[in-house]
């Protein structure tokens, strides 16, 4: 809908800076690339300034891409192009849009993976993702939870069981990454379709 009237003409696209909370370490034109998905679905259809779209360097390894992405983000925080959290040194994004996998993962933070406990890095690499492709970069929970707003968008019946496990009557607290999304000074809003919410 953002690509259509009235939004296409009424939104001040010059103020937009676009990042990826996680990305697969594949070429930008690869079918698994989140950048390609966003470009095809939105970025190529709206007048966002190209220099304000921050994709990973797809020529680097997972470790190198994560370090490079974090370095660039730290420069943008230093110059206040990206706000900084008042309670930490983390970037404070206006909005982070998240989904959830059927295993309860968010971004590329998977259940029982050591990265769910990362406290120092803003952006980390993962080389053993249980969901292919195995190499990715991801925002860590300190960055996610410093956002001013998080929109959690979940659709489909394959999300119902994990949502029931995470937030239903018999929930086990703090087991799944989706349960760890909790902005310290921001808002978390859930958008569920009926199949996803069917067991809540």
Automatic annotation (TrEMBL):
GO terms under biological process: carbohydrate metabolic process; pentose-phosphate shunt
CDD domains, alphabetized: 6PGL
Domain Glucosamine/galactosamine-6-phosphate isomerase: 9-190
Similarity comment: family membership: Belongs to the glucosamine/galactosamine-6-phosphate isomerase family. 6-phosphogluconolactonase subfamily.
E.C. designation(s): 3.1.1.31
Domain of life: Eukaryota
UniProt pathway: Carbohydrate degradation; pentose phosphate pathway
Protein name: Probable 6-phosphogluconolactonase
Organism, as annotated: Adiantum capillus-veneris
InterPro entries the UniProt entry points to: 6-phosphogluconolactonase_DevB (IPR005900), 6PGL (IPR039104), Glc/Gal-6P_isomerase (IPR006148), NagB/RpiA_transferase-like (IPR037171)
Catalytic activity: 6-phospho-D-glucono-1,5-lactone + H2O = 6-phospho-D-gluconate + H(+)
UniProt-recorded Gene Ontology molecular function terms: 6-phosphogluconolactonase activity
